[in-house]
Amino acid sequence: MSRQPEVEKEQGGFDPGAVRRMFAILNREIAWLDNAATTQRPEPVLQAMDRFYRQHNANTRRSVHRLGAEATAAYEGARAAVAQFIGAAAPEEVVFTSGTTAGINLVAAGLARREIGPGDEVWVSAMEHHSNWVPWQQAVQRLGATLKVIPLTPERRLDLAAFRKGLAARKAKWVAVAWVSNVLGAVNDVRAICDAAHGAGAQVLVDGAQGVAHLPVDVAAMDCDFFAFSGHKMYGPMGIGALWGRSGLLGQMDPLMLGGEMIARVDERSATWAEVPYRFEGGTPNVAGAVGLGEAIGWVRTLPAAAHGYVADLARETAQQLAALPGVTVWGPAEGRVSLVSFSVEGVHAHDVAQVLDGRGIAVRAGHMCAQPLMRRLGIESAVRVSFAPYNTRDEVRRLLEGVRAARELFT
Ligand SMILES: Cc1ncc(COP(=O)(O)O)c(C=O)c1O
Asked: Considering only CA atoms, which of 118, 177, 127, 185 is closest in space to residue 153?
């Protein structure tokens, strides 16, 4: 492994180099600009998971021995940490899932499907990830309902005026919307969407995948009904995430994963369910993952407020500098961008741009970014995305811009 380069401190005193040194993988000569796909994990998260397996490993809840009690305490401690992090009223409102996709599917299949009928309407936004599109699309198809789409304004923000106008009271049942777009980087006014939806009698699921690492989360202030996110996009492990739901609503939801740990009683021909949230966590849970997520939450909380401003500055500056390059189009609004920038280079396929960048040790995402309906609205098939974390540096941005210029020269 090579040593990490010296990184200059920011004017406000924020030190990206100090953050960087906590990530062993960044010792490799890689500029990791694919944080929206998955962030890297800092040492404390890796150590917490390692400690769990080395010292406390056991199944939760079903074991009477001391390791079982320790594992249960660790798992439930992580649940409490998630609850506090997102502003939940109680840990019982938090269901551990394998990630955002699993949480959305649970709501769409376990509750929404029961409430949607022929003639009803389900809204998604034009900028949804497939994970927050396909479960709703399939649900409405089966149930004879209609999928409605919140359109984009010319600035590529959500057109909330059109949404309010189109929301039909009594017909609109569900609204599923991303807090932050994984392509445009735009932050959506989810509170305004919830207010409008509730006014029409609809419930709202917020896809928090791209927001949790960068914005303060408060589900109560958002006033949403469900909130789903993934640990791996906020410095935690892969394969763990959480779904928050209003406790009254969780109680009405059907479990999807049936079997061990989620039952109260099983007779030969019938079964009753365990309390919320355990009824949604059938099978042996990902305890080490939950422990890692709890640690990641603690780690995010140690970041100074300036770290988030720094990430937003990197995204804004990168968007401006990319837009100034000949032949480059930056997608997304000029203002209100949190952490990522998507762009296209005229005459060069996104994969070719990413390949040239990879040759220079710069990791970016290229493709449709699991948002094909949005891509079609933008009139493109694919784009390149760079996404930031507090360990990224201005030198990496400089190298990115050089690489993009080089790709254009090579291919046009
Ligand atoms: C906005 C958004 N929603 C949902 C997902 C799916 O997350 P996961 O694959 O962790 O379930 C992603 C992943 O990129 C995303 O960016």
From this structure: 127
Q: What is the mean pLDDT of residues 226-254?
A: 97
297 shares its domain with 326? no
Query: Percent of the chain, pLDDT > 90?
Result: 92
Which ligand 1 atom minimizes the distance to the CA of 241? 10
State the residue range of the domain holding 382. Answer: 16-32+305-411
Nearest to 86 by CA among 338, 232, 301, 280: 301
Q: How many residues does the chain have?
A: 412
Assign 74 to helix, strand or coil. Answer: helix
- Cα-based distances in Å from 92 to 135, 146, 216, 324, 410: 25, 33, 21, 49, 55
For residue 294, the one-letter residue type is G
- Asked if residue 242 lies in contact with residue 103, where contact means CB atoms within 8 angstroms, the answer is yes
Three-state secondary-structure class, residue 92: helix
- Provide the token pair at 189: 């006014």
For the cut 80, the answer to whether the pLDDT of residue 8 exceeds it is no
- 71 close to 287: Cβ distance less than 8 angstroms: yes
Q: At 310, which CATH number?
A: 3.90.1150.10
For helices 350-359 and 394-411, angle between their N-to-C axes, nearest 10 degrees: 120
- Among 127, 353, 370, 397, the active-site one is 370
- Based on the domain organization, do 316 and 403 belong to the same domain? yes
Picking from 261, 407, 202, 385, the residue whose alpha carbon sits closest to that of residue 325 is: 407
Q: From ligand 1's centre to the CA of 132, what distance in Å?
A: 8
Instruction: Let me know if 221 is exposed, middle or buried by CB neighbors in 10 A (0-12, 13-18, 19+).
Output: exposed
Start-to-end CA distance of the chain, whole Å, equals 36
d(CA 180, CA 207): 8
102 alpha carbon – ligand 1 mean position (Å) = 10
The tally of domains found in the chain comes to: 2
Token couple for 145: 């309902």
Give residue-wise pLDDT tens across range 102-134: 999 999 999 988 899 999 999 999 999 999 999
